[in-house]
Design brief:
By secondary structure, the protein is mostly helical. It has one domain. Helices cover 68% and strands 0% of the residues. The chain starts with a helix and ends in a 16-residue tail after the last helix.
Length: 96
Amino acid sequence: MDYESLGRYTEASERARSLAAQRHNKLVDLSRLVSAVTGHSSTGYVAVAMDCERMRSLLEEAAKLDAEMLEAVAVANAVAASCGKPLLKIWQSSGS
């Protein structure tokens, strides 16, 4: 076993999981903001106010975390075979 590769794999794998959790939290926060606008009745009002700056900020933060997570996955997967570890997988959503 290549212990240097194992160390790199472990570090990258843990980083990828941590970044995925952080990204999840940003997207949950974004979802709450969207739900506040779309999920409530605006009876008596023209519309529900949106916090576009906060929504944009959360989306940008989530996108940055996503890119960093994918980089960490690539590092882990590059050394996985040399240390006998499985490839990290990213589930691809259909987007619909």
